[in-house]
Amino acid sequence: MSMPICQFLISVMPESLHRQLLKNFIDAGLEDRLMLGTDNMPLGAILNRLNGFEFLSEQQRTKINYENAARFFN
Questions:
Q1: Rounded to an integer, what distance in angstroms lies between the CA atom of residue 13 and that of residue 31?
Q2: How many angstroms separate the Cα of 47 from the Cα of each of 6, 28, 34, 52, 74?
Q3: If both were cysteines, with which of 51, 56, 67, 69 could 60 make a disulfide (CB 3.0 to 4.6 Å apart)?
């Protein structure tokens, strides 16, 4: 069964909840412990959502997208 991306994203976690949880983690100083995951959403949709969160700096996005995982799995 296929569903539109916007409906799929809402079925996983509403954007408003995702935004608030991620902001809480960032505000708590956990930006070095967050990693991008694609277990339950298409990669493009996740990246679009993360890129839309204006509170993230480019450095924080880079850490979340790959630097933290590269350090963790090194």
A1: 20
A2: 13, 22, 14, 8, 23
A3: 56
Whole-angstrom Cα distance, residue 71 to residue 11? 31
Could you tell me the CA-to-CA distances from 70 to 49, 50, 60, 66 in Å, in that order? Answer: 22, 19, 14, 6
Contacts of 41 by beta carbon, 8 Å cutoff, 6+ apart: 8, 9, 12
Q: Are 36 and 65 in contact (CB under 8 A)?
A: yes
Which tens digits make up the pLDDT trace of 2-28? 555 555 555 567 889 989 999 999 999
- Model confidence over 39-52: pLDDT tens digits? 777 788 888 889 99
For residue 62, give both structure tokens: 């880079």
